[in-house]
Amino acid sequence: MNWDTLINYVGLGQPQMHWLVKIAFILIITLFIHLIISKLISRILLQLKVTKNPWDKALLIAARQPIKYFIWGLGLLIISQTSNNETGAFSQTSIDALRKIGLIALITWFISRLVKRCEQILISPVKMKHPMDLTTVSAVGKLIKASLLIISALVVLQTIGVSISGILAFGGIGGIAVGFAAKDLLANFFGGLMIYLDRPFSVGDWVRSPDKEIEGTVEHIGWRQTRIRTFDKRPLYVPNATFSLISVENPSRMSHRRIYEKIGIRYDDVDALASIMDDIKAMLKTHQDIDSSQTMIVNFNEFGPSSLDFFVYTFTKTTNWIRFHEVKQDILLKIIDIIAHHNAELAFPTQTLKIQTEQNIQPEP
């Protein structure tokens, strides 16, 4: 049964109504297929929720919206072809070009959505046994998306009849001029690329620079600038080229935190000094938060103006800033107890004033 037979069967046999009825039937069929595909995808997703493999679900979620638009795009393409056969409003070349551009756009959209889903999976500790670093995953994702957009744009230009070879030749000559005009932008771009490759820091790290007033937590690493949240919660935007000119310290990657304290006791307690230092060192060796495999020094240091000074030099196991200060406080309180246990006291600045008096000696008669 062809279109004309079907139209006459339903009672719409007027010639001027033929193509309108065809369009209506195409829309209905497109809607019907769209509903079936949507229902089918939803059922498959429900079945995939019980599986441990995240990649098949990511592929289906990435393809869900492009498939729906593909169905409607195919329906609209058939409608345009049908209308063109009746009215001749469009050339066949334009319809073919539109079909190719639409297909390229859908493929590009699908791959972009798939890359985004893969990024979420790779950094998720729930879905991956060994999740990847956020900075690396983000960098690779941005490179793939940028390459995808460039390739898609070139294919579209080729489809509409623009010579790609001419554009590439012009780009080679114009790139030199653009390079001089946008040298700062390019410097920031390559600075960001070096950050992604060398990885001196990652998102979430605490960084500081002794050369610049830069200190805070890295929130975002872009291709032009890096956003750092300072400790007073202000955002600091640093051009990426800056990091190639300054020294950057990354305290987040320290293996231990150091306790280095100078302590003084009175000169009156000189007999207890050696015992106090021995007890302090024994306490540090048995303390559960002190790494005894690292350098540990408790030594008499100098004769102070009003105290006998010794120093404590050791490393904690934790690198967490808050936990470190809790451990340090516990160590200092224990040192106070040890000093008190030996009936000694912490020294404070004092001065001793000696007054010499002269005695009046009466001469003998």
What does this entry look like structurally?
The protein is an alpha+beta fold and 365 residues long. The protein folds into three domains: 3-130, no CATH class; 183-252, SH3 type barrels (Roll); 254-341, Alpha-Beta Plaits (2-Layer Sandwich), CATH 3.30.70.100. It has helices at 3-9, 18-48, 54-87, 92-122, 134-159, 164-181, 183-198, 273-286, 321-341; strands at residues 206-209, 214-221, 225-229, 235-239, 257-265, 297-303, 308-316. The strands form two sheets. The protein has a four-stranded antiparallel sheet. Strands 5-7-6 form a three-stranded antiparallel sheet, covered by helices on one side. Strand 6 (297-303) and strand 7 form a beta hairpin. The longest helix has 34 residues, at 54-87. Mean pLDDT is 80; it is low at 9-17.
Summary keywords:
365 residues; alpha+beta; SH3 type barrels; Alpha-Beta Plaits; 3 domains; four-stranded antiparallel β-sheet; three-stranded antiparallel β-sheet; 9 helices; 7 strands
Quick structural overview:
With 365 residues, the chain is an alpha+beta fold. Helix content is 54%, strand content 13%. A hairpin with a 4-residue loop joins strand 6 and strand 7.
Counting H and I runs of at least 4 residues, what is the number of helices?
Answer: 9
Radius of gyration based on Cα positions: 38 Å
In N-to-C order, the SSE pattern is HHHHHHHEEEEEHEEH
Class by alpha and beta content = alpha+beta
Q: How many β-strand runs?
A: 7
Shape: elongated
Strand order of the largest sheet: 1-2-3-4
Query: Could you describe the largest sheet, including whether it forms a barrel?
Result: 4 strands, antiparallel
**Relative strand content:** 5-15%
What portion of residues is helical? 40-55%
Tell me the domain tally: 3
Question: Please, what is the average pLDDT?
Answer: 80
Poorly predicted ranges: 9-17
The span between the termini is 161 Å
